[in-house]
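Form 7-S
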Amino acid sequence: MKNIFSLFIILFFSWGHAQKLDNIQSGEVLNYRIHYGFLNAGTATLTTLKTTYQGKPHFYVKGYGRTSGAVRAFFKVEDNYESFINYNTGLPSFYVRNVQEGSYTQHLETAFNHDNNTLILSDKEKNTSKVVKSVKDVQDMLSAFYYLRSLDSTDLKVGNVKKLKVWIDDELFPFQLKVVGTENVNTKFGTINCLKIVPQVISGRVFKDKEGVTLWVSNDKNLIPIAVKAELAVGSLKASLESYKNVKYPLRF
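Output:
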């Protein structure tokens, strides 16, 4: 169960070149229900607000995940993520990961400099800071989620494989995703047509195998993750859209 909500966010990465986030609406809220095997494991929420950061238009995004029910009784998780994402480029400017997972805690802040491909990583618990070499168009875990949703139909053709590097905790991870087809997915709101995406992830550390994750994204301009399934090294993780509001385009169930 460790890092289960971190994994939930990681599953929603993206690809392509930097681009404007003009299909995301300020005030959007997405709520997800997470299951671990047969257990109701917890919830995750993503909220978006248009703001300014360092004098430039940004989205301020908050991600919050927590365990619930029987799972919380033996493993308490309170995961908080924040990201300031440049509205015109889709790239993160500032990222916060502040989590408590059982006895494990971590509070990191990352300031990105995309002009010289570096970042400043600050550990708030240890009161340390260092400059780290980065790569072009690096994403954090939250910005990647919204970056995916800024793509158009030409980027999302069946068979397309794209690569991305995501800053997770305190290091870079390479990912690639493949659009394998379309599929109708049953939800509490009705049936919705989705793009079926298979991210290729690092096996052995957390996931059961290299392609143990499947993501279903609404096949419309919103590109909202509707459901996700991950076969973990121990058990399986499932998540589904529980509620939503203030999405820019109507979801067609």
